[in-house]
Amino acid sequence: MAEPEVRRRKLDGGDGDTGKSESEAEKIPRDESDMDDKPMINESIAKTIGQDKAPDVLDTALSGLPPRWKNWVIRGIFTWLMVFGFALIIWGGPLALMMTTFFVQVKCFAEIINIGYAVYKMDNLPWFRSMSWYFLIASNYFFYGESLVEYFGVLINRIEFLPFLVKYHRIISFAMYIIGFVWFVLSLVKKYYLRQFSLFAWTHVALLIVVTQSYLIIQNMFQGLIWFILPVAMVIINDVMAYMFGFFMGRTPLIKLSPKKTWEGFIGGGFATVLMTLGLSYVICQFPYFVCPIEYSPELEKMTMSCEPSALFRTQEYSVPIAFANFRRIIGMKETVTLYPFLLHAFFMSLFASIIGPFGGFFASGFKRAFKIKDFGDIIPGHGGIMDRFDCQFLMATFVNVYIHSFINVATPGKLLQQVFMLKPEEQLELFHSLEDSLMARGILAPPQ
Fold it and tell me: How crowded is the C-beta side of 80, counted as CA atoms within 13 Å?
């Protein structure tokens, strides 16, 4: 008899072995309660979270079309609706954009966490759903509190209780997290240890993907709306153009994770993204509304976007290779070209959006395949859930934030003043006298008479 079979029979009490210790027996699963702690991955997950389905009106109106063309039309209709909606939100100003970012963050978190609930069947642990949302609130308090401290220091100092919250912001944030952590430990149930720890990790990964990225998006926005609008537009352009090239010309599969993606769509979408980004950048650079940093004005008591555009957004003359310069002279043009320096940065960002950005979508595709679902949700017909449309946006936002802090970000008087106003009065006075002495020593400021 094979050794594994002998071992199995002994564990089952075969061959007259009835003297097995109680501790050994406890190690052997004998009922379904241990199996209840396992994740359940099957088709029921898709039914629980909902999958993309065309509205009945459109489905009936387009019933004569083949499924491929029906999906193309529905996807196109709702793509244009989202584009016009995004333009309307931009017109609404930075506050509308920030509120939209917060809404998208909450909806993406809900879609990700709902998959976790469907996988681990947490219906019999009702407090666990509340705990996940509590961690979302605690995370937002920490990240958005940091933004308020950085950009609204003057306003905060005018409200009596806010300086206290600012001074102890991080310890308060940490205390909020510790409350959630202790809550989780006290809620542990022996029968569901694996499920609970798995969903605890699931919640934290969702927070890392969603909350952290939305915070970076808000930071990018404060640098100027162009650092928010353009990266979002790059991803949209790449997604739409890759779909169009792939739909009409796609023949060669690109990656197994997403069988519908093709090399033709990837390459065609990449070239289109770079060219259209440069054209869009040239137009946007001409409007101070888009290029000026968002700052709080104590005089106007509101956020403002009026400034003298930095050198990055002012045209400069650039020399070109001799052969090209001679050609331009022959056809009656200047030997130099006039460009916005920002176009160079837009070019590199568009390369990232075209080459690396799609991997955010591939990652999401792999995630969905792991749990046998097609979409994260069904809120947008032809597209799926909110997360289905923002899987690449979060990756792009992180890159733009890193790019700004690596190559663009410089201290401005407005940013420095925000930090100065957070100091105590005696510290502000000390800084004033130190700055005054330095300016007089360098002959910039005349000594008092």
Answer: 5
CA distance 273 to 240: 10
- Cβ-in-10-Å burial (0-12, 13-18, 19+) of 121 comes to middle
Task: Let me know: does 335 contact 329? Beta carbons within 8 Å.
Answer: yes
Contact 74, 382 (CB under 8 A): yes
How far apart, in whole angstroms, are the C-alpha atoms of residue 351 and residue 345? Answer: 10
Collapse the DSSP code of 378 into the 3-class scheme (helix H, G, I; strand E, B; otherwise coil) and give the result: coil
Question: What DSSP string describes 9-32?
Answer: HHHTT-TT-----HHHHHTS--ST
User: Do 135 and 204 contact (CB within 8 A), yes or no?
Assistant: yes
What is the spatial distance between Cα 146 and Cα 142, in angstroms, rounded to a whole number?
Answer: 6
CA atoms of 124 and 312, how far apart (whole Å): 57
User: How long is the chain?
Assistant: 449
Tens digits of residue pLDDT in 183-225: 999 998 888 888 889 889 999 999 998 999 899 999 899 889 9
What 3-state DSSP class applies to 251? coil
Most confident of 221-225, 310-314, 333-337, 399-403: 399-403
Torsion-angle region of residue 121: left (phi > 0), alpha (psi -120 to 50) or beta?
left
Alpha helices in 292-336 (DSSP H): 322-330
Q: Distance between CA atoms of 334 and 231, rounded to whole angstroms? A: 32
From residue 271, alpha-carbon distances to 106, 241, 354 in Å are 33, 9, 8
The pLDDT of residue 18 is 44
Q: Look up residue 299 and give its two tokens.
A: 């005089």
* Buried residues in 171-182 as b, exposed as e (16+ CB within 10 A): ebbeebeeebee
C-alpha distances (whole Å) from 342 to each of 14, 57, 213 are 78, 45, 24
